[in-house]
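Exercise 7b. C-alpha coordinates:
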Protein backbone atom coordinates (compact mmCIF):
# COMPACT_ATOMS: atom_id res chain seq x y z
CA UNK A 1 0.00 0.00 0.00
CA UNK A 2 2.99 2.29 0.51
CA UNK A 3 3.73 2.35 -3.23
CA UNK A 4 0.33 3.57 -4.39
CA UNK A 5 0.57 6.79 -6.35
CA UNK A 6 -0.81 9.58 -4.15
CA UNK A 7 -1.70 11.84 -7.08
CA UNK A 8 -3.73 9.24 -9.02
CA UNK A 9 -7.24 7.92 -8.59
CA UNK A 10 -7.36 4.15 -8.57
CA UNK A 11 -10.18 2.23 -10.23
CA UNK A 12 -10.67 -1.31 -8.97
CA UNK A 13 -12.63 -3.41 -11.44
CA UNK A 14 -13.72 -7.00 -12.07
CA UNK A 15 -10.86 -8.26 -14.24
CA UNK A 16 -12.81 -11.17 -15.73
CA UNK A 17 -15.92 -9.18 -16.69
CA UNK A 18 -16.13 -8.20 -20.37
CA UNK A 19 -18.28 -5.14 -19.57
CA UNK A 20 -15.79 -4.01 -16.92
CA UNK A 21 -12.82 -4.51 -19.25
CA UNK A 22 -14.59 -2.54 -21.98
CA UNK A 23 -15.29 0.20 -19.43
CA UNK A 24 -11.61 0.32 -18.49
CA UNK A 25 -10.66 0.69 -22.17
CA UNK A 26 -13.27 3.44 -22.54
CA UNK A 27 -11.84 5.31 -19.55
CA UNK A 28 -8.23 4.93 -20.72
CA UNK A 29 -9.10 6.42 -24.12
CA UNK A 30 -10.65 9.48 -22.47
CA UNK A 31 -8.19 9.94 -19.60
CA UNK A 32 -6.28 12.72 -21.35
CA UNK A 33 -5.04 14.19 -18.04
CA UNK A 34 -3.70 10.80 -16.86
CA UNK A 35 -5.82 10.84 -13.69
CA UNK A 36 -6.51 7.12 -13.29
CA UNK A 37 -4.70 3.89 -12.54
CA UNK A 38 -6.36 0.48 -12.68
CA UNK A 39 -6.27 -2.63 -10.50
CA UNK A 40 -8.23 -5.84 -10.99
CA UNK A 41 -10.22 -6.78 -7.89
CA UNK A 42 -8.93 -10.33 -8.27
CA UNK A 43 -5.28 -9.27 -8.04
CA UNK A 44 -3.24 -9.35 -4.85
CA UNK A 45 -3.08 -5.54 -4.79
CA UNK A 46 -6.81 -5.30 -5.47
CA UNK A 47 -7.51 -7.55 -2.49
CA UNK A 48 -5.05 -5.60 -0.34
CA UNK A 49 -6.73 -2.27 -1.17
CA UNK A 50 -10.19 -3.71 -0.49
CA UNK A 51 -9.05 -5.04 2.88
CA UNK A 52 -7.46 -1.70 3.72
CA UNK A 53 -10.62 0.31 3.00
CA UNK A 54 -12.91 -2.35 4.47
CA UNK A 55 -14.81 -3.32 1.32
CA UNK A 56 -15.69 -6.93 0.51
CA UNK A 57 -15.75 -7.08 -3.31
CA UNK A 58 -17.85 -10.26 -3.50
CA UNK A 59 -20.55 -8.63 -1.40
CA UNK A 60 -20.24 -5.17 -2.91
CA UNK A 61 -20.18 -6.38 -6.54
CA UNK A 62 -19.06 -2.95 -7.63
CA UNK A 63 -16.48 -0.86 -9.33
CA UNK A 64 -14.48 1.02 -6.69
CA UNK A 65 -12.90 4.42 -7.13
CA UNK A 66 -10.19 4.88 -4.52
CA UNK A 67 -8.42 8.16 -3.89
CA UNK A 68 -5.49 7.17 -1.65
CA UNK A 69 -5.50 9.02 1.64
CA UNK A 70 -8.81 10.73 0.84
CA UNK A 71 -11.88 8.62 0.10
CA UNK A 72 -13.39 5.76 -1.85
CA UNK A 73 -16.63 5.47 -3.83
CA UNK A 74 -18.76 2.52 -4.89
CA UNK A 75 -21.33 1.73 -7.56
CA UNK A 76 -23.14 4.69 -9.16
CA UNK A 77 -21.18 7.23 -7.09
CA UNK A 78 -17.90 5.82 -8.43
CA UNK A 79 -19.10 5.84 -12.05
CA UNK A 80 -20.36 9.43 -11.82
CA UNK A 81 -17.12 10.62 -10.17
CA UNK A 82 -15.14 8.95 -12.96
CA UNK A 83 -17.32 10.48 -15.70
CA UNK A 84 -16.98 14.00 -14.31
CA UNK A 85 -13.18 13.78 -14.67
CA UNK A 86 -13.46 13.80 -18.46
CA UNK A 87 -14.60 17.45 -18.71
CA UNK A 88 -16.49 16.70 -21.89
CA UNK A 89 -19.99 15.63 -22.77
CA UNK A 90 -19.51 12.67 -20.38
CA UNK A 91 -19.21 15.03 -17.44
CA UNK A 92 -22.88 15.84 -18.05
CA UNK A 93 -23.65 12.42 -16.56
CA UNK A 94 -23.19 14.18 -13.22
CA UNK A 95 -26.77 15.38 -13.64
CA UNK A 96 -27.83 11.90 -12.44
CA UNK A 97 -26.74 12.98 -8.96
CA UNK A 98 -30.16 14.63 -8.68
CA UNK A 99 -31.55 11.12 -8.14
CA UNK A 100 -31.17 9.59 -4.68
CA UNK A 101 -28.23 7.20 -4.42
CA UNK A 102 -30.61 4.32 -3.65
CA UNK A 103 -32.34 4.71 -7.01
CA UNK A 104 -29.05 5.10 -8.90
CA UNK A 105 -27.57 2.07 -7.15
CA UNK A 106 -30.66 0.00 -7.94
CA UNK A 107 -29.97 0.47 -11.66
CA UNK A 108 -26.28 -0.17 -11.10
CA UNK A 109 -27.03 -3.38 -9.16
CA UNK A 110 -29.37 -4.63 -11.90
CA UNK A 111 -26.63 -4.26 -14.51
CA UNK A 112 -23.99 -5.73 -12.16
CA UNK A 113 -26.14 -8.82 -11.49
CA UNK A 114 -26.60 -9.46 -15.21
CA UNK A 115 -23.23 -8.38 -16.60
CA UNK A 116 -21.83 -11.90 -17.11
CA UNK A 117 -25.05 -13.07 -18.77
CA UNK A 118 -25.24 -10.06 -21.11
CA UNK A 119 -21.55 -9.40 -21.82
CA UNK A 120 -19.77 -12.63 -20.86
CA UNK A 121 -16.64 -13.19 -18.86
CA UNK A 122 -13.01 -14.09 -19.40
CA UNK A 123 -11.18 -17.06 -17.95
CA UNK A 124 -8.49 -14.76 -16.59
CA UNK A 125 -7.88 -11.07 -15.98
CA UNK A 126 -6.98 -8.85 -18.91
CA UNK A 127 -3.26 -8.55 -19.64
CA UNK A 128 -2.51 -4.96 -20.69
CA UNK A 129 -0.48 -4.25 -23.79
CA UNK A 130 3.02 -2.83 -23.24
CA UNK A 131 1.70 0.65 -24.12
CA UNK A 132 -1.01 0.44 -21.44
CA UNK A 133 1.04 -1.33 -18.77
CA UNK A 134 1.86 1.97 -16.99
CA UNK A 135 -1.86 2.53 -16.37
CA UNK A 136 -2.14 -0.67 -14.31
CA UNK A 137 -0.78 -1.19 -10.82
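Sequence design result:
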Amino acid sequence: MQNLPKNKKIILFDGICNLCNSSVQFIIERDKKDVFRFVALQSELGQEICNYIGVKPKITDSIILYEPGKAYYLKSEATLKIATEFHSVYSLLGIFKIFPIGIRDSFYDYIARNRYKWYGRKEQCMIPTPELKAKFL
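Instructor comment: Residues 101-119 form the longest helix (19 residues). The CA atoms of residues 51 and 66 lie 12 Å apart.
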